[in-house]
Specification:
Layout (H helix, E strand, L loop, with lengths): L2 H5 L8 H8 L2 H12 L6 H13 L4 E5 L2 H11 L7 E4 L6 H8 L3 E4 L11 H7 L4 E5 L10 H11 L2 E5 L7 E2 L2 E2 L6 E5 L13 E5 L2 H10 L21 H10 L3 H19 L5 E3 L6 E2 L5 E5 L5 H10 L29 H9 E4 L7 H14 L3
The structure holds pyridoxal-5'-phosphate.
C-alpha cells in the first residue's frame, strides 16, 4: 500500500471489524453455543451478564432488558413514577431520555446543562422542581458522569426518586461511584455502537435496591412474578440470550478498551491545546471518563457543520450528538418549550463535534484527525 492510500484510509466513529478481529473466534463460538443450548430468551447467558455487569460497577443487582429505552421507561415505572408526574431531565441528550418519561404519561421538565460539561446542572434542576415532581433523571452524556453527589442530596432533601441515564457510561465513575450506585437505579444501552455493544439491541438496569430489582424483573415480563400470574401491567422486554452471549465475550475487555479511549482522549487534548476556536468539553474533577464520545466545541468563524464537512472530505467522519436540543424537537411541542429556553443546550447543539475515539484507533489516526481539524477550523 502506498503512503497516499494510507493517508486516505477512512477514520470512522466505530470499527466493528477491528473489534471482531481482536476477539477472534470467541464471538462465533458464543453464538453457536447459545444456538445449540436452545435457551434463547433470558436464561444462563443473561444471568451471567447481569451478575458480571453489576459486579463491574460495584452494584448489587442487574436486570437485563430489551433496549436502553426500555431500561429508562421500566426504570421510571419501577421507581413509582406515574402519569401526570413531573420528571426533571436534560435538554441536551438523545431524545430517549425525555421520551421515556413521556411514555408513562408523565411530563419531562427540562433544566439547562452546564456549557462546559454538557451535563445537567444540579442548581438548574433544583430550580425546575415543581410540586408534581417525583423524580430526577440526569444523563451521563458522552461517558462523563453527572454530579451524582449533588443530585443525591437534592433528591434526599425533596424526597424524589433518582434515575441515572448511563446509556453512554459503561464503566464510568465519579468520586469512585459508578452509574446505578448513588441513584436509586442506573440504566445502560447495549446498542451496537456503545462502549459495550451487542450485535443488535439490549439494555440493563443496575440498582442497589432489591425492591427495585424485583419490580423490574416483573415489569420486563408483563408484570409477572410467576408464570401466568400478572400482578401489574408491564411489557415484554427480555434480553435475548444470543445478545447476552456476545456481551459476555466483550465484557472482560471493557476496562482495557475504556483505558485506550482515555489515552486517545488525552492525546487529542494535547494536540488541540492552545487553539482559540476548538474547545474540548471540561472534565469534572474526580471523574473517570470513558469517552463514548470525545467532544469539542467549534467556536470560530467557520461553522461546526462546515468543519465537519471539511473533515469528511478527508475521510474523517466526526459525529454531531446532538444537532437539536430535546425541547426544539417536533415531538417535544406539547411540553411547551421554545427557542431561548435553554441557551446552553442550544449553543452546544450548534457547536459540538464528536471526534472519532474508539479503542482500535492508532495514535497516528488521532494526530491525523487533530491536524485536519486544526486546519479545517482555522485554529
Ligand atoms: C443518552 C441515551 N439515553 C438513552 C438511549 C436509548 O438507548 P437504546 O438505543 O438502547 O434504546 C441512548 C441510546 O443511544 C442514549 O444515548
Amino acid at each position: 500500500m502506498t503512503s497516499t492510500t494510507q493517508a486516505t484510509k477512512p477514520i470512522a466513529p466505530v470499527d466493528l471489524a477491528a473489534e471482531r478481529a481482536e476477539l477472534g473466534p470467541a464471538l462465533q463460538e458464543a453464538v453457536l453455543r447459545t444456538l445449540e443450548s436452545g435457551k434463547y430468551v433470558l436464561g444462563p447467558e443473561v444471568e451471567a451478564l447481569e451478575r458480571d455487569f453489576a459486579k463491574l460497577h460495584s452494584v448489587a443487582h442487574g436486570v437485563a432488558v430489551g433496549t436502553g429505552t426500555d431500561a429508562l421507561w421500566l426504570g421510571l415505572l419501577a421507581l413509582g413514577v406515574k402519569p401526570c408526574d413531573d420528571v426533571v431531565t436534560s435538554p441536551f441528550t438523545f431524545f430517549a431520555s425525555a421520551a421515556s418519561i413521556a411514555l408513562i404519561g408523565a411530563k419531562p421538565v427540562l433544566a439547562d446543562v452546564d456549557y462546559d460539561t454538557a451535563l445537567l446542572d444540579p442548581a438548574k434542576a433544583r430550580a425546575a422542581v415543581t410540586p408534581r415532581t417525583t423524580a430526577i433523571l440526569p444523563v451521563h452524556l458522552y461517558g462523563h458522569l453527572a454530579d451524582m453527589k449533588a443530585f443525591r442530596a437534592l433528591c434526599d432533601e425533596k424526597k424524589l426518586a433518582l434515575l441515572e441515564d448511563g446509556a453512554q457510561a459503561h464503566g464510568s465513575r465519579r468520586d469512585g461511584y459508578a452509574c446505578g450506585t448513588l441513584g436509586d437505579a442506573g440504566t445502560f444501552s447495549f446498542y451496537v455502537t456503545k462502549n459495550l455493544g451487542a450485535a443488535g439491541e439490549g439494555g440493563m438496569v443496575l440498582t442497589q435496591r432489591a425492591d427495585v430489582a424485583k419490580n423490574l424483573r416483573e415489569l420486563r415480563d408483563h408484570g409477572s412474578p410467576t408464570k401466568y400470574v400478572h400482578a401489574r401491567i408491564g411489557t415484554n422486554s427480555r434480553l435475548q440470550a444470543i445478545q447476552a452471549a456476545i456481551l459476555n465475550v466483550k465484557l472482560p475487555h471493557l476496562e482495557r478498551w475504556n483505558e485506550r479511549r482515555r489515552q486517545l482522549a488525552a492525546r487529542y487534548g494535547r494536540n488541540l491545546a492552545g487553539s482559540k476556536v476548538i474547545a474540548p468539553l471540561t472534565l469534572a474533577s474526580g471523574t473517570t471518563h470513558t469517552y463514548h464520545q470525545y467532544t469539542v466545541r467549534i467556536r470560530g468563524e467557520r461553522s461546526r457543520d462546515a468543519v465537519a464537512a471539511a473533515l469528511s472530505a478527508k475521510q474523517i467522519f466526526a459525529g454531531v450528538h446532538y444537532p437539536s436540543p430535546v425541547h426544539l424537537q417536533e415531538a417535544a411541542k406539547p411540553w411547551g418549550y421554545g427557542p431561548g429556553d435553554f441557551p446552553n443546550a442550544e449553543r452546544l447543539a450548534r457547536e459540538v463535534l464528536c471526534l472519532p475515539v474508539h479503542p482500535f484507533l492508532s495514535d497516528a489516526d488521532v494526530d491525523r484527525v487533530s491536524e485536519a481539524l486544526l486546519e479545517a477550523a482555522g485554529a
